[in-house]
Amino acid sequence: MSRIGKKPVSVPAGVTAAIEGKTLSVKGPKGTLSISLADEVSYAIEDGSISVQPINETKRARSFWGMQRTLVQNLITGVTEGYSKTLQITGVGYRANVQGKNLKLQLGYSHDVDFAIPEGITIATPDQTTVQISGIDKQKVGQVAAEIRRWRKPEPYKGKGIKYAGEYIFRKEGKKK
């Protein structure tokens, strides 16, 4: 039994959900999101909530049960509140700024890195060493943050690089004489 899957997902006021064929669409104040539905799980919209139940008791159906319920919850949270991630840049001369549809990163390379901002994602730079990524799709926000971080991961000796806000970097001791 999935403890997560048992709980129905409540649909708040101002949000509409509809099942059309094998697609669940959710529309809210921030936009519209949709996912394709799994065949192993049945979905029902009733009384302002969406319930997810496995069709049979196979291991595959039970494993999809909790995951699909969480994906539905992510859709509803995305269209009501949205998601955001914050990256911090550490290092001498390392900086970032938004220029039009591109994020320009100076990360100690011989050239600047231009990162094209994808559709549906908003990137802001409150200061030169902070990058805020926000959007309504949780997966897309996390993927963009990971792609930006990949350009210069934090190194363990001085901690230079791009890290998530609140991320702990395990520091190593340097050479000894």
Descriptive account of the structure:
With 177 residues, this protein is of the alpha+beta class. It has 2 domains: 3-80, Ribosomal protein L6 (Outer Surface Protein A, domain 3), CATH 3.90.930; 83-164, Ribosomal protein L6 (Outer Surface Protein A, domain 3, Alpha-Beta Complex), CATH 3.90.930.12. It has 3 helices and 13 strands, in the order αββββββαββββββαβ. The strands form 4 sheets. A 4-stranded antiparallel β-sheet has the order 11-12-7-13, covered by helices on one side. Strands 1-6-5 form a 3-stranded antiparallel β-sheet. A 3-stranded antiparallel β-sheet has the order 2-3-4, with helices on one face. β11 and β12 form a beta hairpin. The protein is elongated. It starts with a helix and ends in a 13-residue tail after the last strand. GO terms for molecular function: rRNA binding; structural constituent of ribosome. One of its GO terms (biological process) is cytoplasmic translation. This protein binds to the 23S rRNA, and is important in its secondary structure. It is located near the subunit interface in the base of the L7/L12 stalk, and near the tRNA binding site of the peptidyltransferase center.
Number of strands: 13
Number of domains: 2
- Percent of residues in beta strands: 35-45%
CATH class group of the largest domain: Alpha Beta
Which class of secondary structure composition applies to the elements? alpha+beta
Distance between the termini: 59 Å
Number of helices: 3
Order of helices and strands: HEEEEEEHEEEEEEHE
GO cellular component, one term: cytosolic large ribosomal subunit
Function: This protein binds to the 23S rRNA, and is important in its secondary structure. It is located near the subunit interface in the base of the L7/L12 stalk, and near the tRNA binding site of the peptidyltransferase center.
GO molecular function: rRNA binding; structural constituent of ribosome
Pfam families: Ribosomal_L6 (PF00347)
